[in-house]
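Supplementary notes for students who missed Thursday's class. We covered one full example, reproduced here. Read the sequence, then the structure, then the short commentary at the end.
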Amino acid sequence: MVTKPGIITKTKKFVKDGWSNLITGLNAAATAKKRYTRHVIDHSITDQELESLYAEDGLAARVIDLLVDDMFREEWEYDFPTSDELKVKELTDHYKTVMESIGAYQKCAEAIKWARLYGGSLILIGVTDGKTPDKPLDPKNIKTFENLKVIDRTDVDFQNIEFQMDPLKPRYGLPEYYSIKVAIGQQHIQMETRVHYSRIIEIHGASLPNGATVFTAEQRYWGVSVLQRVEEHLRTLGSSLGSIDQLLQEMSVGKYKVKDLANLLATSEGKVMIQRRVELMDLTRSVFRSQYFDSEEDYTRDAVSFNGVPEVLYIIFMLISADTGYPITRLFGVSPAGMNATGESDMRNYYDTVRSKQTFQLQPILLRLVNIIAEWLGIEEPYIRFAPLQTMNEKEQAELNKLNADKDKIEADTYKVYVDMGVLEPYEVRFLKFGNTLDIIPVPKDFELPPVEPVSGDKSMEGDETG
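Structure (token representation):
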């Protein structure tokens, strides 16, 4: 390298650093096995396998159903801007009546379950509005709101979905029309006409990256089953339980030592003699609870040890729990392990997950339905609020009531001190504590309020001296 006089240059070198020990070979590229471990997709679960898992594997069905059941465990509330209680009750009754008539509770739960199982589902809004299914839904001209029809992904013809291809349109890249089958009795009948998107509510499964190359275009659009991520550990658990079942059948194995056994088995007479001898041993053991052997015979029994099996199964439980997001106490009913373990923090995190699912998946469905009902009936549209998932038992409620009572007593004592000191007047305490809420209490005719005297120093209630 040619450099100018008086200028010092440094040569940059590429240094490959990492957690490795060149002396012992620890984590070295040539010896570390984990460096050659790569994740590859085992296989995409077919629809037939998903149906089989849901129908025959109780744990797989619980993975699908449990979260949805918790989402619908507490009924949602209709929140209206008005403070008129009678009007709120009347409007709430209208929405509840329609929701119950179309089976919204059951149908929404079913649709979310099938989306979790198959990777996607649809809710077909069944109304009579004087238009064919390929025309936009007209809520103001609805004659009857008949039902909600749940359609899982397998009954949607993905190849014939018509997407909006005009980038200037608001639904660019989204479906405009669907081609679907409807379950009628035991048959799945293809609808003769395509269905406009305004009559459809889409529900997606576990999402995938748009650039995922190992999955089909249909899976990238809808998502995959939640069982796809847990299927490997479910298979591990199933094979482990099968091995344990086999060990239970061979838990205790008896071994007979017979002289010249190989020579005896070489002849038919010897085989019969050995069989009769074993039968006689079993018979005498069951009757006399003792064994009689020839001087050259011996009998031993080997027992299978199950030490460590519960610990291994618990590890598999934890892996499945991690895959699904369920606390192990909720999914398996197993008590939490470890010192001072109660599982309360796990359940709190799980309830946060349920609330997130309610907010981002269930709430848009319900808001879509109440929007249609509001335009149909011409009534005020509410907002949907979900009731708390965590409920207190009698002991916890009593403790909370006591804390609130103690708080009110301390606050009342503080106000009394202020009144005695002349800092506040009773009517001021009444307003600070209750505001105008006590005004609705009827006052007896013979009751007269004491005259209100101006507070010392409060010139706002005195006469205008300049007047």
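Commentary. The CA atoms of residues 159 and 218 lie 8 Å apart. The radius of gyration is 37 Å. If anything here is unclear, bring it to office hours.
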